Amino acid sequence: MQRPWHDPAWRAEFSRGARDMLPAFPGILAWGLVTGVAMVKTGLSVPLALLMSLLAYAGSAQLAALPLIAAAAPAWVIAVTALATNMRFVIYGAAMRRWLTTYSKRRLSVLGYLSGDFSFVLFMNRVAKEGAFEHRDAWLFGVTLVNWALWQFASIVGIIGGAFIPTSWGLQFAGTLALLPLVLPACRSWAGATGALTAGCVALLGNGWPYKSGLLVGVVAGIIAATAVDSVAAREQVDGHP
Amino acid sequence: MNQMATLDVLLAILSLVVATFVTRAGMLLAGERLRLSRPVEAALRFAPACALTALVLPEVLGPAGALDLSLGNPRWPAALVAAAFLLWRQSMLGGIAIGMATYWAIRLWLR
Question: pLDDT tens-digit profile of A212-221?
Answer without folding.
Answer: 788 899 999 9
